[in-house]
Amino acid sequence: MLGVLFGALLYGSISDRYGRLKAIYIGLAFTIIAGCASSVATSVYMYAFLRLLVGINLGCSIALYVLSVEIVGATERHIMSVLGSVGFAIGIIVYAALGYFIRNWRILSMLTSASGFTFYAFHLVLVESPRWLLSHGHTARAEKVLRKIALGNGKHYPAHVSLKRPVSTKQATLLDVYGNALLLRWTLIQVYSWCVNSTVYYGLTLAAGDLVSSLYMGIALSGVIEIPAVVFTLYLVKRFGRRLPLCLCMLLGGTSCIAIYLIPVTVSRRLLIQNVCALFGKLCISSSFATIYIHSAELFPTSVRNAGMGIVSVGARLGGTLSPFIVLLGDHFYDMHFVIFGLLAFTAGLLNLLLPETLNKPTLESIEDLNAGFAKARGKELLAIDPSSVHHLQKLIEDEEAEDQMEEDVLWDTNSMERAKLMPAHV
């Protein structure tokens, strides 16, 4: 987990500078090599070092997620995002089953590490992010990718339409994220929210053996419950957006965790009720974790999206690192770890209400777009579509009558609306 913390930052920058696919392929290759090597480690220090390398290179998974949401249109981003959670849930179930039948940890480690080779079979169908290509001035390659996607979807790419290179050609870095006050505020809230989601998610997974007789069964059930959570998430984010479902799921998950502690010892079938609360809490946190991936990816501009996702992923890794120690509190203070999980989820859920909604909003392409697209009217932050419309927006703000009619979120993407219309509904 500590390795992934550093890897998220490393591969976030690599992905934004050299492309999503390059970061994925390089990271996966080193992950497989280090993982297989750790299965034959001859000392605990050698094993720890190799697992650290595995974690660092697993940071490329952020690039894989960003790629999945950048190759689809705004209306389908939630599907691509949530589908990744299905794979994660299946992985938990399969790993619990493998652990039950394969008790030799070296064989188990070798088998799971080598399974990464299967990903390279998708090289024939994977494409580089057209948004990344366009933001880096590779217009011809971006059009080629879009034509390939359109052909695969059975659609016709308009011959008279050509992509335009973004106005800003400045190479964005992590410092640009910290240098923008609004983006920094969003990022700090997301870092805390990701940290809490990870803490509660992995904490409930690790504590699965506390409430059932079999550790393998407990972990498998924690994976099974994530599948209906995915279906639940798909409906919520499509119908109610990102912000409110994220807040609601974290509040409900926190309530379930606290309920585990509050159930009196004298209650009959107390253990069964605690199991139900724990599984419902895992369902809610799994749903919020899937939602926060979507929300964060849509908030960051394309030029710093992977770097931004790397920053918030650091929060998640910190939470994952802390979760085992919080679970250990249950050995000294009965079920106190569930109380901590519940309180953390409550605070993070409420803080997410300070972030803007992104449902069906085309993503921003650069930080300049973010700066140009915002104006303040009576303490409200207004998002604009086009930099050319900023002057018109300012005139509307000066007009008292027109200002009262303006909505909180006017529009998103500054100079990519025309490109967004070209994006296919799905791959």
Structural commentary:
This protein is mainly alpha-helical and 427 residues long. It is 70% helix and 2% strand. The chain has 21 helices and two strands. It has helices spanning 2-18, 20-38, 44-57, 61-70, 77-101, 105-114, 130-135, 139-152, 174-179, 181-206, 208-211, 215-224, 226-240, 243-262, 270-299, 305-332, 336-351, 367-372, 390-398, 400-405, 417-422; strands at residues 374-377, 380-383. Strands 1-2 form a two-stranded antiparallel sheet. A hairpin with a 2-residue loop joins strand 1 (374-377) and strand 2 (380-383). Helix 1 packs parallel to helix 3 and helix 2 packs antiparallel against helix 4 (61-70). It starts with a helix and ends in a 5-residue tail after the last helix. Mean pLDDT is 78; it is low at 375-427.
SSE map:
Elements: H1 2-18, H2 20-38, H3 44-57, H4 61-70, H5 77-101, H6 105-114, H7 130-135, H8 139-152, H9 174-179, H10 181-206, H11 208-211, H12 215-224, H13 226-240, H14 243-262, H15 270-299, H16 305-332, H17 336-351, H18 367-372, E1 374-377, E2 380-383, H19 390-398, H20 400-405, H21 417-422
Antiparallel strand pairs: 1-2
Proportion in helices: 55-70%
Tell me the number of strands.
2
Low-confidence stretches: 375-427
Shape: globular
Indicate the radius of gyration in whole angstroms. 23 Å
Count of DSSP H/I helices:
21
